[in-house]
Amino acid sequence: MRLNPQNTSPSLAGKLIVTTSTDPLTRGLDYLYGVRSLALDPEMIDIVYDLENRKSLCVWISEHIDGVNRQLENYLQACHDCFHPWEQPAIQIYAAPLAQSFGIDALCNLQTNPITILIDVGRVVPTDWLLLVVHEYAHAHAGSPGHHEKYARSLSHLCLGLGIAPPEFGMESQLRFYPDCRPTQNPLAFWRGEHY
Ligand SMILES: [Zn+2]
User: Fold this and answer.
1) Based on the structure, what is the number of domains in the chain?
2) Residue 9 has pLDDT above 50, yes or no
């Protein structure tokens, strides 16, 4: 799990997010309930209760989420390519709007099979999405939600492979926020289609 440095209060299974409806609101809600089922805690995706914002989010999701998830899958593949095939954990990755109250930008759920990575693409600028994927991939590779020595080794290996400066000291306090990502002003703006 990568904590959002702005908010220091306290990281999901196959292609199971399937929707058959053609109604944008239904399609968006199906997607949100799909990612809820993959989160560490379903309440991490609380937008389903936000009657004011959820319609615009669902419409945006129904039109754009496949393209966003394809991009995340490209980044996931770039991480896989840093390791031998037998060292690559089985991972699925999805974009999801994560509840502000949890204060996280992304998460890795080691309890699902395959391991699930959820990325809140509204919280950091798109050019830094790869950095969020790298942070969570290192959890999947280390097989642990902690930021200890094994995690530091996985993260450093990924950074070197992808041309990112590796963490210098390997201290937990640094690793929790590594690599550094540029935050957006309003996490929900991206999800509403309001590009900056
Ligand atoms: Zn973490």
Assistant:
1) 1
2) no
